[in-house]
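User: Reviewer 2 asked us to show a designed sequence for the structure in our supplementary figure. I'm pasting the structure tokens here. Could you produce the per-position amino acids so we can include them in the response letter?
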């Protein structure tokens, strides 16, 4: 450990007898990609104050990054015994169940998370995805709530997709235009809006959207979409799995295939929200 890093760690641990010091050290390790060290730090925080559920919630995240879903679940269960109304614990447990394809349990936990924290966009979003297959009206309500609380490009894209699917084309266009005005670092809102325009015979408008995408430098590194050289028109893209989560939750993106035209359906395994850290 270099000197500067050691000084930073020392500053965090200025009160080693207080649980928050070990907790903050665990956060540092977790953010630095050191889950084993984070487990030790969160475990120390939990021992210093066994009545506080927060370290246990984050301990579950560290275990998840190590691929130990059993210990992750055990940590969340312990946290919920201490605080049955912990929205963060219910949310993370819901995502854990979703990864295990226990969708009914996942739904129940996410509903509890939203009950105890009505502004938790991640809970509303993931509920929306889970409900999309057989309860589309409630799914839309949840996705709209998520967008209201957290109007980022990923939520906008997903909401617009399901608005379009429900026949609400003008609303889908409005949402996508809002997202594009913020110049998102992802290609999907541009591609979906272009496809909506093309399917309605509005090729000039579609071309304008693709030009906007090509002029957005933040999109260049989006591996879910094309480079400016290949961005011309939306085509069907086969499902691809990639992970951005400690528990490696799957979410379906798509890849360009020559000659195809229709936009693909989403998967219920689409979880762009990370584990919630209190």
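Assistant: Here is a per-position design you can include in the supplement:
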């Amino acid at each position: 450990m270099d000197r500067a890093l050691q000084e930073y760690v020392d500053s965090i641990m200025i009160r080693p007898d207080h649980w928050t010091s070990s907790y903050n050290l665990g956060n540092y390790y977790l953010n630095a990609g050191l889950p084993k060290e984070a487990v030790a730090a969160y475990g120390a925080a939990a021992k210093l104050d066994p009545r506080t559920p927060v370290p246990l919630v984050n301990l579950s995240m560290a275990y998840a990054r190590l691929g130990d879903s059993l210990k992750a679940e055990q940590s969340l269960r312990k946290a919920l015994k201490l605080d049955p109304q912990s929205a963060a614990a219910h949310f993370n447990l819901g995502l854990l169940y979703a990864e295990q394809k226990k969708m009914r349990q996942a739904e129940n936990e996410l509903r509890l998370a939203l009950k105890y924290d009505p502004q938790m966009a991640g809970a509303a979003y993931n509920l929306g995805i889970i409900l999309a297959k057989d309860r589309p009206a409630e799914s839309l309500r949840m996705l709209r709530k998520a967008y209201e609380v957290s109007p980022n490009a990923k939520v906008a894209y997903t909401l617009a997709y399901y608005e379009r699917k429900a026949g609400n084309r003008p609303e889908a266009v409005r949402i996508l235009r809002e997202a594009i005005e913020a110049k998102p670092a992802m290609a999907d809102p541009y591609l979906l809006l272009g496809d909506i325009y093309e399917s309605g015979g509005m090729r000039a408008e579609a071309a304008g959207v693709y030009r906007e995408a090509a002029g957005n430098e933040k999109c260049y590194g989006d591996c879910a979409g094309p480079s400016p050289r290949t961005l011309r028109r939306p085509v069907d893209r086969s499902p691809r799995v990639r992970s951005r989560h400690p528990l490696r939750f799957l979410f379906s993106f798509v890849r360009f295939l020559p000659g195809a035209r229709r936009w693909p359906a989403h998967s219920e395994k689409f979880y762009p929200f990370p584990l919630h850290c209190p």
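For the response letter, you might also mention the following. The chain has 13 helices and two strands. Residues 251 and 270 are 4 Å apart (CA to CA).
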